[in-house]
Amino acid sequence: MKTFFLGITLTCLLVSGGLRAQGFDEKIQDIFQAALDTRLLGLGQSGRNFSLSNNQLSRATLDGFVDILQTGVTHFPAGATATGLSFDFSNGVPVTETQSLGPIFAERAATLGKGRFNVGFLSNYLNYQTLRGQKLSDLTFVFTHNDIGLSGLGDMPAEWDRVELAMNLGIRATIFSFVGTVGISDRIDLGVALPFLSVKVQSDPVATLVSQTYLQSGVANFYYGGSETAPELSTVLPGINEEASGLGDLVLRGKYHFVKDNRLDLAAMAQLSLATGDAANFLGSGEGYLKLGVIGSTHYGNMTPHVNLFYQRASGGSRGDELALYLGYDHQVNPAFTLAVDVLSEFQIHPIEEGYRLPGSVEYRQEVSNNVTYRRRVPLSNIPFWERDHYVNAAFGIKYSPREDMIILSNLLLPLNSGGLRTALTPSLGFDFSF
Hints:
This protein has a single domain (2-434), classed as Porin. It has a twelve-stranded antiparallel barrel. A four-stranded antiparallel beta sheet has the order 6-7-10-14. A hairpin with a 5-residue loop joins β16 (250-259) and β17. It has five helices and 27 strands. By secondary structure, it is mostly beta strands.
């Protein structure tokens, strides 16, 4: 058994340590760089007033955007440590502890039973539609000119020039998860979750120069083609249409069933997530996580309510610590069918760190006469400026057991809020074997 878990861990570390091609993070940077520097003609070639290397707001926009995409793709719950029936062998013979087949993403307190194994496979398809409620296909960024005059934008005509970038973005992912659990004793389970991801990113970006200098004087300081007096102010940029596949972040888990009672069962659980996935290609988070919590479950006839409360400590990154609360129940319709319903909530405790936060807006100020100042505030993106991204989802699942040692399961995950990168609906299909 130790060899089994050690082998999986070493495999993940070896695979994740290999050489890789240019990641999605660098491909998105290339789009930004083309819009702000390499394709920009005119005074921008010498001043580089929009470029990522010379404009702090441009750089902050790129870093914040890449981080929120990377976090969103990898922010998906692993399957439960063990599903199906649980057994107590304390009297030398197996005694069934549970009636229903259990939840799909949440946990109940019961453990497998000493010497028992559970192996599961879960496939999830995610077609991302929105980012903080804004359609991915409609995402737009605004890049401002550097402040070259008095402190604050707007006192010089050139400072009113800006670049608008439409990403026309699409992201799809398929996550195949292997989940294995072994009963060390009647009260202790150890488990592993190993995801394999396939992520496809498509983007057909278009950059447009809003040239205030051209509107006022007929001479453009910046343009994408033509000349200063006959400028081309819009251009189609090289896009992305590529797919990356590989191992995700390895998860190690342990559960201790410390209270067994006819009315209430309680368990403690620890989960360690290792940064084995390629974060640059949105296959991993890039950070490790330690998750500690308590699980409570009870039963009323054929219904088994459960509650999970976890605190997640991050080793770094943008999201920081999180508090997770899973509430739900599974209901045994008959010995072969179980319905599972859960609300899966994950709340970000601390604000997103400054280096990973999307900038909100900038203010332009221009003095039009004595004691009269024209002010205009321009958002730097149509993505809402939030300091935290909370995730709340509803899960509706069905489990079917054609025989005692096998379970076929399906689930639909629906978002209940708009935080982060979200799908409209996430279907899941899988199966478990117990022996």
